[in-house]
Amino acid sequence: MERKRIYTSKTISRLMAIPYAEEPGMRESIREADSGVFIGSSSKMNMPIFIDFNALFNPHIFIVGMTGSGKTYLMKSLLVRLSFILEASVVMIDLTGEYLELAKMIGAEMHTKRRKPIGLNLGSTSYFMLKGLKEKEKAAYASEILKAVALKMRGNLSDNKKRTFVLLDESWKLIENNEDLEVIVREGRKYGVGLILASQMLEDMSDKIVSNSASIFIFRVQMQRSAEKILADYDLSREYLGTIQAVGQGRCLLIKLDKNNRRSTILINRIIGISLSQKTRLILG
Question: For residues 59 and 196, what is the distance between their CA atoms, to the nearest angstrom?
Fold first, then answer.
C-alpha cells in the first residue's frame, strides 16, 4: 500500500520559489516621510515608500523599463514633488517636448530658443527645449547645458544651498560619453547635484552611470538579455526574473543603496502620482 504524504503549509512553502522584496518598517517610513519624497506603496504590506536623499549614498536616480511601463509617469511625479516638497531646483533637458506643459506648471525658467552662452541658475528650475533640432544640434546643445551645470557646480557660483537635479529622459543617448555628464555622476553628491536618467534597456546605459546611481527603478523589462543583466548587476536571485519581465504597468522594483552601503530591494505595488488638480493646489498653496 502506497504511503500518503501529507503537505502542510510549512512544507509547501519550502517548495515554492517566491521572490522576497524587503518591506520598510513603520519606524523607517515615518523617518523617511519627514525628509523624503513619496513614491508609492509597497506590494506586500502596502507601506508608503519614500526616497530620502539624506540617507542615500548619492542623489542619482536611474529608471529602466519598456515603453508604456510607467517611466515617464514616475519622472513627472518626481519633478513635481522635488520642486514643491523638497524645494529643489531641476534642470530639464527635454528631447521631445514631453515635459513642456509640466515645466510651465511648476514655474520653470523657459529656454525654448537656443541661446549662447547658456544662462543657467542652479538655484531655480530651468527648462531647455531640444525638440525640432537635428540630432547633432541636440547633442551639442545638451552638452553645453551639462557643461554649464558642471561649471556652476564645481565653481560654487551660486549661493543656493538647495538640491539640484538634472533630468535626462532618454536624451542621454546623444551624450553618453560626455565628460561633463561623468563629472556630475562622480562629483554630484558632494555638491548636492543629482541626475535623473531613464532608458528602455539597462545595457544601453554606461556602467559608470548605472553603478553610481543609488536609486534604481526597474519597470517591466521583457528582453531576456536586459533582464539577465539586471539580475547579475544587482545580485538578485533568479526568482526575480519573472517579476522583472511580467510586472504590470505602474509597478516596479526599487533598489536603494544607503550611506552605510546597505542595499534594499522593494517591490512597489503602484507608483502614486499627482493629479492635475493636486498640482494646481500645490502651485496656488
Answer: 9
The CA-atom distances, in angstroms, between 55 and each of 23, 35, 129, 227, 229 are 17, 9, 33, 28, 27
H-type helices in 85-237, by residue range? 100-105, 135-155, 179-191, 207-211, 224-233
- Domains defined along the chain, listed by start: 39-112+120-284 (3.40.50.300)
pLDDT of residue 218: 92
144: region left, alpha or beta (phi > 0 left; psi from -120 to 50 alpha)? alpha
Residues near 205 by Cβ (< 8 Å), separated by ≥ 6? 62, 64, 172, 176, 197, 199
CA dihedral for 138, 140, 143, 147, sign (positive or negative): negative
List pLDDT tens digits, range 81-92.
999 888 999 999
